[in-house]
Amino acid sequence: QPRNNIWAAYRERFVNSVNTANPATDFLRLFMDDYVVAFPDVPLFVGEYHAPGGRQREQLEVMLDAARSDSSPLLGLSFFEFQVRYDKGGSEMSFGIFGLGDAPLGGLRVGGRGFRATR
């Protein structure tokens, strides 16, 4: 005979989280529609949200409207990410709502690598 109800503890104590780069409407349709069926009473938090290439303000409003809805388990989100990650390069440069300027301030060397400082 089990001594503890693990499923009850999970439903009462846990918040699930997910990261997504999907536009808000796609995320709601492709993920949330199924999530509310599988986990109707388990809150969800989007730990990293950013849909590059879209209209950020509109996308955020759609996501926040879903979080405000009493019928949604979505608690909220954290926007990913605030500053462009120049050190990662490539497709990672699509993320970040703030980028550094291109006016040179100087340079420095760290661990044998040269870096440019801008404003």
Tell me briefly what this model is.
This protein has helices at 6-13, 24-38, 56-68, and strands spanning 16-20, 44-49, 74-79, 104-110, 113-118.
Structural Rg: 20 Å
> How many beta strands in the DSSP annotation?
5
**Classification by helices and strands:** alpha/beta
Major sheet: arrangement of strands: 1-2-3
Low-confidence stretches: none
Order of helices and strands: HEHEHEEE
**Total number of helices:** 3
Largest sheet: 3 strands, parallel
Cα distance, first to last residue? 65 Å
Number of structural domains: 1
Q: Roughly what fraction of the amino acids lie in strands?
A: 25-35%
Backbone shape = elongated
Helix content: 25-40%
Chain-averaged pLDDT: 90
Structural features:
alpha/beta; 119 residues; two-stranded antiparallel ribbon; three-stranded parallel beta sheet
Describe the structure.
This protein is an alpha/beta fold and 119 residues long. The protein has one domain. The protein contains three helices and five strands; from the N terminus they run H-E-H-E-H-E-E-E. A three-stranded parallel beta sheet has the order 1-2-3, covered by helices on one side. Strands 4-5 form a two-stranded antiparallel sheet. Strand 2, helix 3 and strand 3 form a beta-alpha-beta unit. The mean pLDDT is 90.
